[in-house]
Amino acid sequence: MGVLMHLVLMRRVVVVMRPVLARMGMGVRFPAAVVFVQVLMLVNVLVLAACRAAAYVLPSGMPGPRPPETVSDGVYLVGSSDLTDGRDCSAYLIDAGELVLIDSGAGASTGQIIRNIELLGLDPARLSTLILTHCHIDHVGGAAYLKERFGVRIIMHDLDAGAVEHGDQVRTGASWYGLPLAPLPVDVKLSGAEERLSFRDGTTLACLHTPGHTPGSISVWRDRDGERVLFGQDIHGPFLPEFGADLNAWRRSMKALLKLEADVLCEGHFGVYRTKARVREYIEGYLDQYGW
Ligand SMILES: [Zn+2]
Ligand SMILES: [Zn+2]
């Protein structure tokens, strides 16, 4: 479209300017100058078109303010409010012989998350699965793009899946964030108290239903070489009625998380906590705040 507009415009310039320049005695040099300017403008239009195409593939393909981080063997932090976009939750990548992403950010920086996967030396084409810990836009916003580009299987709890499938602007927090969320089908809906998912290299991820922040919140953990990594995500809340929050359910969920005695906690917005003692301290701190 841009190229066509350019050619039409240049034709008009030639028609209008030729008699004017001829009267000024510049008629001989004029065609060569026009061709030169035309070539420059055409290059300009093509570069702009290429940039626009690149922006579609990688909405923000430049390296982020902070590089991706290795959390544990085969576990990486690839998105967060510091790494990618201020509105993003922490997005964690697990190499399980295939790539599994836990949460996808708010959607404005999905290209940067993909870029971070590449910076780790991993091929984003190996992305097979997206586990959504709950329905909020800062966790599910990138899902549609990842589905379209990589065909990822989207997994989340049945009690939060409806909000995503219907594009519920209130329950997903989309209206609060002022971000768009189109209805998106969920491929696998978890409904048990605890369900296990198996992956290509034998990795098992356990998904525990931990309602409270939302009715369908889940926490995921992985055991490897005697170390338990827990993806607890929005442990800290908030607990708002419009999100279907339930503080009593949350208290029970936090006590279930404490029983896991995880060595590493990957939180939804506040970073990574190490050693069993610090993980316990973090969760207990919120139980102290909201009541046991
Ligand atoms: Zn969140
Ligand atoms: Zn949330």
Brief overview, please?
The chain has 9 helices and 13 strands.
Written description of the protein model:
With 292 residues, the protein is α/β, with parallel strands linked by helices. The protein has two domains: 2-57; 69-290, Metallo-beta-lactamase, Chain A. The chain is 39% helix and 22% strand. The protein has nine helices and 13 strands. The strands form two sheets. Strands 1-2-3-4-5-6-7 form a seven-stranded mixed β-sheet. α1 packs antiparallel against α2 (30-57). The chain is globular, with a radius of gyration of 25 Å. The chain binds zinc ion (2 copies). One zinc ion binds at residues 89, 136, 138-139, 234, 268-269.
Number of domains: 2
List SSEs in N-to-C order: HHEEEEHEHHEHHEEEEEHEEH
Across the major sheet, the strand order is: 1-2-3-4-5-6-7
Q: Which regions have little confidence, pLDDT < 50, spanning 5+ residues?
A: 1-16, 43-61
Bulk shape: globular
What compounds are bound to the protein? Answer: zinc ion
What is the percentage of strand-forming residues?
A: 15-25%
The rounded distance between the terminal residues' Cα atoms is 62 Å
The CATH class of the largest domain is Alpha Beta
Give the count of helical stretches.
Answer: 9
The percentage helix is 25-40%
Radius of gyration: 25 Å
CATH topology of the largest domain: Metallo-beta-lactamase, Chain A
